[in-house]
Structure formats: C-alpha cells, structure tokens
C-alpha cells in the first residue's frame, strides 16, 4: 500500500508543473532583449548571398557564414590526403599536418572572397 501511494505521489509531483516555472521574467531581465523591444530584424540579401540589415544608427551590418562547414570538410579531406602522402612509419605526422592544412584552406574557401564591412 505504501509503495503505491509513494509512486502516485511522485507521478503527481512530476506531472503537475509549478506555476513559477512558466512566469515571465521581469522587464529588466536580459530575456527582454532587442527583438522584444524592436521586433525582428529584417534581413536583406545581396547578389553574392551576404545577408545585411540597417541598424538603428543608420549603418549597415552584414552577416555571413563563418566557414565552419568548410573547416570540418577541409580537415577531413586533408587528413586523408596527408595520410596517403606520408607512407613511412606510423603516418600520424602526415595525417595531422594534412588535417591542419585542409582545415585552413577549407575555412577560407567557405568564407568566400568578399569581406564584410
């Protein structure tokens, strides 16, 4: 009997959330940030794919990829090529150097030639 009561009480406690968990944060909290005050940012896109928006100060700001996908893909391909080129010994040196060089090249290729100003 005690076991069933304990299980029922535990399930009721888990199933009924407390009201304080769903309360709004105070108005001064960081949760009420820029979007809550000014709405969503309207992005525009240039011909070469760079997203930009106009700030409240009249300046234009841009956003584009940081090259993470290129970094990871370049590191994988570079590690395979470095391992294939280094045929002596345990081949760890070629793998590590190939991965580092591939990561740098892949990152730069993914970012593209344009600069964000």
Automatic annotation (TrEMBL):
Q: Which UniProt keywords apply?
A: Lipoprotein, Signal
Coarse class of the primary localization is: membrane
Every copy of the Glycine zipper 2TM domain together lies at 70-108
Where does it localize? Answer: Cell outer membrane
User: Where is the secretion signal located?
Assistant: 1-23
Q: Give me the Gene Ontology terms describing cellular component.
A: cell outer membrane
Q: Which family does it belong to?
A: Belongs to the rickettsiale 17 kDa surface antigen family.
UniProt-recorded name of the protein: 17 kDa surface antigen
Source organism per entry reads Novosphingobium ginsenosidimutans
